[in-house]
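User: Sorry, folds how?
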Amino acid sequence: MGSTNSAQVVYRRPEAFTDTPTHYCPGCTHGIAHRLVAEVIDEMGLREKTIGVAPVGCAVFAYNYFDLDFVEAAHGRAPAMATGIKRVLPDRTVFTYQGDGDLASIGMAEIMHCAARGENITVIFINNAIYGMTGGQMAPTSLPNQKTTSSPLGRDVEQTGYPLHMAEAIATLDGAGYVVRRSLHDPKNIRQAKKAIRLAFEAQQRNLGFSMVELLSTCPTNWGMTPQAALKWVEEHMIPVYPLDDFKVTPALAGLRLQAPREG
C-alpha cells in the first residue's frame, strides 16, 4: 500500500483570481478564458500594473473574478476606455475582455478605430456566435442557418447578411500587431489559446501596437445543448466558418513565437 500522504498539488488558483462563485451557466467557457488570462498575468508578473476593462454582456461582472484593477465600460466602449487609460498610464498593461455582441455590433466603430490607430492595448474577444445575456438572439457572428431566438428558422444570409470575421478584418489594419483566433473546445486548443494570450500581452509589453486574441467559446444554454454537445458543435460547425489561424504577427513578435516551446 502506498502512503496516504503522497498526494501532490498539481494546480493552484492564480493569484490574479479571486475566490468568487461563478455566475456563468454550466458548460460556459468564459471561465476557462478568465483562468487563462489570470495565469498569463501571474506568469508575467503583471498583476500589480494591469488594468482590465469589463464589457456589457455575459462577462459584465468579470471584475469580480480578477484580483487586479478593473473598470466597467458602457456597452461596446471598452476599447475607447482602454485607449484613454493606456494613454494616461502608458506603463500599465491594459486589456479589454469583450463578447461578440459588445465588440462586433454596438462596439464595431470603437474596436476598428482603436486597431487602426495602433493603440497599444490587448483585446480578449469571446466569440460564441450568439447574444448570451439578453436571451440568445442572433449576433453579428451567428452562423448561416443558425437557429436563435430572433432567427428561429435559422439565419437567412440573404436577409441578415453573413457572419462577421473580426480577426480577419482587423488583421488588415496597419495599426494591428498581433491578431489570432483560437478555440476553447478541448485541452490541446486551450493550451494553444493560452500561448496566444501570452504573446498578445508580450506584444503590448514590447509596444508593438494593437493585439487581439479571438476565442471560440460555447453557450450551451442559448444553443439549447448539453455542455458536451456544445464543445462538439464548436469543433464541427464553428471552426469551419471561423478557422483557427494567425492572421497577423509582426516580425518582432514572430521571432519570440518561434522561440516558445510548441504546444499540443
About this structure: The chain has a mean pLDDT of 94. The two ends are 35 Å apart (CA to CA). Residues 30-254 form a domain with the Rossmann fold fold (CATH 3.40.50.970). Strands lie at 50-54, 69-72, 93-99, 122-127, 176-183, 210-216, 245-249.
